[in-house]
Amino acid sequence: MDLREGQTQPILDPNQPSHVYHLALDIGGSLAKLVYFTKDDDHLVDGEEGISHRKAFEKSNGSKQYPVLNGRLNFKKFETSKINDCIEFIKSMKLHIGGSQPQENPGSQSIAIKATGGGAYKYADLFKERLGIIFDKEDEMDCLVAGANFLLEVVHQEAFTYMGDQKQFVQIDQNDLYPYLLVNIGSGVGMIKVEGEGKFERVSGTSIGGGTFWGLGKLLTECKSFDELLDLSYRGNNRAVDMLVGDIYGGMDYSKIGLSSTAIASSFGKAISDNKEREDYKPEDIARSLLRMISNNIGQISYLNALRFGMKRIFFGGFFIRRHPFTMDTLSVAVNFWSKGEAKAMFLRHEGFLGGVGAFMSSDKHGLKELLAHQVVQRSLSKLSFAVDKILHGSPDGDFNGDESIECSVYAA
């Protein structure tokens, strides 16, 4: 993190085991996401590694030199409906104290924090009242794209495909990353054509997204949270609720147009002909049908938009996916089916934190990315900060559930 001239050093709490040097928030309609950096110890990096980083930064910034701090980039999420839990977490961890610098009035105790998402406006007064935080607001789409570009360019094994229970990491060629379609599945769905750094356009979207799944799921089942609903769907059988091609054709395929007997002809369609009441259907089957309906719809619309612009690479992000195997498989099958295998659905390990990472990056337009990109060149992948988080050390498939942290280094003035 490059602290520019005229800015003060972060206030550090000596009682904290890891000092917070920066905090950014992305507050959406369903979830509030935090991204913050903590320093592992109380000394700056020295030796050859630290010197090489300083030289790399010095090259693009004249004679200025910034020492390097080793630490971790941390990720944390909260339900937006429980925003007070998020505030209490920030307060208990004292994240806001070292999060940024006081704003223009030197006598003010207010702290400026980078924030994006609708909640940066909706909850601005609440955060100011409770924590003395003033949100320095960043455009939501700018942050989303910047976060995706950064992670795809810098983080090893960030992108992967998933279909038929097979997960395969994709090696991203930085020279061949663009263009791509970024599909961000939050409460609603935004589809963005990304052509380069700062060069993007929102080309489509749909209101049928994660909020639809959660909202209808809450009405149709007794689930109290998004994750509970996802877990419930994993145990369900959508064939008990959905009308299949085979139900219409007496168990036969509709081979002339390439539809198998198990293809869904009508989501929830079986409820029309069944002589049953709602309570006769299992909640897990309803949840499964609902998840599949929404995932199929998003997958199809995504491919059609990719087709409009001749793009064969589609990255899906957003906390709707939640690393849920059935969700990823359904999206992949939909893209594969409609594209006849020509387009690929790809997923991101840090799927729900794209906006938060972009907001974090907005405090330092060049220094952090240059440092981490330099690490990619200078260090082996097995030791690459930021590229290898602690989940990779404990899990062979590199899963990430959103509350872990990543080793990295930042610049400090």
Structural features, described:
- One of its GO terms (biological process) is coenzyme A biosynthetic process.
- Pfam families: Fumble (PF03630).
- By secondary structure, this protein is an alpha/beta fold.
- Among the domains are: 19-142 and 353-411, ATPase, nucleotide binding domain (Nucleotidyltransferase, domain 5, 2-Layer Sandwich); 210-241 and 281-348, Nucleotidyltransferase, domain 5 (2-Layer Sandwich), CATH 3.30.420.40.
- The chain is 35% helix and 23% strand.
- The protein has 14 helices and 15 strands.
- It has helices at 47-60, 83-93, 119-122, 124-131, 140-154, 210-220, 226-234, 245-248, 270-273, 283-308, 325-339, 354-361, 367-378, 390-394, and strands spanning 19-27, 31-39, 68-79, 111-116, 133-137, 159-163, 166-169, 180-185, 189-196, 199-206, 243-244, 264-266, 313-317, 344-348, 405-411.
- The protein has a 7-stranded mixed β-sheet, with helices on both faces.
- Helix 6 packs antiparallel against helix 10 and helix 10 packs across helix 11.
- The longest helix is centred in the C-terminal third of the chain and has 26 residues, at 283-308.
- 42% of the residues are buried.
Secondary structure elements and their pairing?
Elements: E1 19-27, E2 31-39, H1 47-60, E3 68-79, H2 83-93, E4 111-116, H3 119-122, H4 124-131, E5 133-137, H5 140-154, E6 159-163, E7 166-169, E8 180-185, E9 189-196, E10 199-206, H6 210-220, H7 226-234, E11 243-244, H8 245-248, E12 264-266, H9 270-273, H10 283-308, E13 313-317, H11 325-339, E14 344-348, H12 354-361, H13 367-378, H14 390-394, E15 405-411
Parallel strand pairs: 1-4, 4-5, 8-13, 13-14
Antiparallel strand pairs: 1-2, 2-3, 3-15, 6-7, 6-14, 8-9, 9-10, 11-12
Helix pairs in contact: 5-12, 6-10, 7-10, 10-11
